[in-house]
Amino acid sequence: MMAMSEPASTSNKNFFPGLFPESMFKDAESNLRKFGKIRDLFANFPKVKVGATPNEVVFKKNKMKLLHYLPTAKDVKKPPILIVYALVNRPYILDLQSGRSVIQTLVGHGFDTYLIDWGVPSDFDRNISLTDYLEKYVKRCVETVKRESGCDQVTMIGYCMGGTMGAMYTSLHQSDIKNLILMAAPIEFSSREGLLYLWSDKKVFDVDKFIDTFGNCPADFLQWSFLLLKPVQNFFTKYINFYENVEDDRFLENFLAMEAWVNDNIPVAGEAYREFIKFLFQENRLVKGELRMANRPVKLQDIYCPVLNLIAEKDFLVPPESSAPFNNYVSSTDKEIITFPSGHIGLSVGSGAMKVLWPKVCAWLDAHL
Amino acid sequence: MAGKNSTEQEKTEFPGFQFDELKKFFEACAEFNMKVMNAGMNLCKEGVEQDTYKKFLNSWQDALADFLDKHLRSPAFCNKLAQDMTASLFFKKHLDEMMLTSLKNLKLPSREDLKELFGRIDSLEEKIDQILENMEKK
């Protein structure tokens, strides 16, 4: 009996003093708990809920839907806001969860808010060009928003590639736009500091051959390109953080919602992708004033409405040197830049952005009604 | 002569094995190892504490991120990327062509046929949109 009880009494002893810290043995219980939690998580994977604000579809064309977020305030502020999202990834990042939603913030401040959800292009959409997106889709959305709201103009918010498209649209149809807000929008493509800009270079990437072969730009290709920009962070650090915080339910909820979005990539219509890479990433035509859409020149100097340019300081996807020069090219006299210390996605879901940045944007919008 | 020129051009566009690039790669590897070793030595001097492993892990992650970033933006990697992409696109193109021939032989509609059909539906949709728009205006 003694022989059996003895090992139990010495089981907590550190047999390698100095080599392993005591904390390692103390942490063993916590590690076991975490493994148990991960096992339970995979056994009963929770349904990840994304999208916080109620909305209705007010216009549909092909795969695209124009969503109207139902106002919660008694007095709805005009002009309405039309958000143009990028053709890559899904737009629900702007309405990810309650408390982490740009749209919820805007609606909560009384703004009449609409969002363009481009949907998922199929093989049959490979011929949709940037001109088609601007002249057939965005234009129809702007007209619908104007008709629904009874206003002559809209405030346009463009996020990432949607910001570039918003800038193009505004230069072509300035009379439709009251204010323009860009969120981490790539405008100046001459720098090769960003990895995406380097990999899109003519010498590295033959976009013609790529699109001629694939039709559309595959979702997996985009996904891997984005993940490879920060390999250690995306393949290692993220999962270490997950392991360390797996017992925190709030962290877990946020983590799973983000993962759902990150892994929900969509293909991009081939022709639009070809034009975006060739005309912008490779030839930098927008700032050179050499871009033409629907037989009309797209010149940033034709933009004279109030402009607010939101820049993410730690953005490695769209570096600040790509988005900041926009204000130098437009003719607007009322223009402002807000540089926020976050990454590309942090601009739309970061807790700091929710507390500091978006109230500032709402104040700017209030001053430009 | 024409063949020789074409080969020379290919060599300029996609240089294959380059000693300089390999040397740079090994130098970067050595730099990464030095950083990790230095971080480890400094931590040993401080003595083993509760967060020593975390500190070492952070140093390793930083060094690896730095190393990979340098490698991912190196001309060697970019050239390899271009080479691999050209090869895989060539393969896929030929596979698609084979598939197209097979579908044609089986009298089945190909992607091109469906694309044409969709183009017609799209132009019809466009016309309906225009008619609706005109009706709304009236």
How would you summarize the topology of this molecule?
The complex is a heterodimer of chains A (369) and B (138).
Chain A: H1 2-9, H2 22-43, E1 55-61, E2 64-69, E3 77-84, E4 95-97, E5 100-101, H3 102-108, E6 111-117, H4 130-149, E7 154-159, H5 161-172, E8 177-183, H6 195-199, H7 207-214, H8 219-229, H9 231-244, H10 249-262, H11 270-282, H12 285-288, E9 291-293, E10 296-298, E11 307-312, H13 320-323, H14 326-329, E12 335-340, H15 346-349, H16 351-367
Parallel strand pairs in A: 3-6, 3-7, 7-8, 8-11, 11-12
Antiparallel strand pairs in A: 1-2, 2-6, 4-5, 9-10
Helix pairs in contact in A: 7-11
Chain B: H1 2-13, H2 19-46, H3 52-72, H4 75-105, H5 111-137
Helix pairs in contact in B: 2-3
How many structural domains can be distinguished in the coordinates of chain A? Answer: 1
What would you call the structural class of chain B?
A: mainly alpha
End-to-end CA span of chain A: 84 Å
Number of contiguous helices of chain A: 16
Output the helix-strand order of chain A: HHEEEEEHEHEHEHHHHHHHEEEHHEHH
Return the CATH class of chain A.
Alpha Beta
Beta strands of chain A, count: 12
Major sheet description of chain A? 8 strands, mixed
Percent strand of chain A equals 15-25%
Largest sheet of chain B: none
Question: Which series of helices and strands of chain B comes N to C?
Answer: HHHHH
What is the distance, rounded to the nearest whole angstrom, between the alpha carbons of the first and last residues of chain B?
69 Å
Stated plainly, the CATH topology of chain A is called Rossmann fold
General shape of chain B: elongated
What is the helical fraction of chain B, as a range of percent?
Answer: over 70%
Rg from alpha-carbon coordinates of chain A: 24 Å
